[in-house]
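Readers outside the structure-tokenisation community will struggle with the description of the input data as it stands. Showing the layout once, in full, would remove most of the difficulty. For illustration, here is how one protein appears when written out as sequence plus structure tokens:
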Amino acid sequence: MKNKLQNTLSWVKNLWKTKKWLVIITIIILLIIGNKFYQDKKNQPVLSFANPTIKTLTKTLDVSGIIDAKEKVSLRFATGGKVVYLGAKEGDSVKKWQTIATIDQRSALKTQEKYLNLYAKERLDWDQTQYDIEDGTTVDETQRRAIDKEQYDLSNTVLDVELNSIAISNGSMSSPFNGILIKSPTPVTGVQLLATDTFDIVNPETLVFKALVDEADISLVSQNQSAKIEIDAHPDETLETLVSYVSFQSVPSSSGTSFIVEFPIASSDLTKYRLGMNGDVKIKLETRESALTIPLISIKERGDKTFVDVKTGKKTTEEREIEVGLETDDEIEVLSGLSETDEIVIPE
């Protein structure tokens, strides 16, 4: 035995001496082959399988929007003026036709007195002219023109009185509906307002969620469809609602052309649901009861046909054509080609 081992060692030594480079190359080749075999085995995909399941499948359309109100208004005076009366402060509830603010009307009232005096004077002149005509006085063309001029002067004084009356009425501002004063340019009287200063009033009973739906999806949306709203400021709450309005005219948006869709909010709490809050809404488009479903990622499409890989043995699969129906973001309905007992390949 000892001699045999010695002979083997001697043979290896001789081989190394005579064919050293051949041995090195052989070892390198063996290492390369071994590494490639290991990598191929490592990169070989591990197949994952799942059975089709029967469930209620609901297709939804997810869009973003903000909280708004159907009844809201920004009131302002036709001209600037000094505030002499405030009927409500920011945050106060107001009634319909309640006076919100009044500006100084002394100048307008004096102007009205002036216009009334002018009207009285013009009317006296007119009455005298009519009396002269009825008394049999002959009227020539020059006098007729004078009479027409007096008529125009009288009409203009009437218009001045009416216009100034409008200006006086505009000096007092009232709410057109029940609501809350959410913005006031001043909390005190004696302040000079500009014509651009506004008093904003909102009816909290008319809160809505306004979303923009892309023109490619607007045909899927109609009134009375169920929906769920999630407000970013209240992530743990879901508001059940429905589509109450779909606009007929498009509006420009960051994604192109969109349409406004409104959803009523069953709350009048402006301290919780404030105007301009962001959120998302899921519109329920279609529902299928007892639908056979598979993950959307498991299908393959070629042309107008749909396929899945189905397990046929311990390590074998086959491609099978299926007919599909309702599709959601994650799942798709199988109308034919599969059963609950089939196992389909789920790509990693």
In short: The chain has four domains: 2-43, 48-57+288-346, 62-70+201-287, 77-199. The longest helix spans residues 106-134. The helical segments are 2-18, 20-43, 106-134, 141-169.
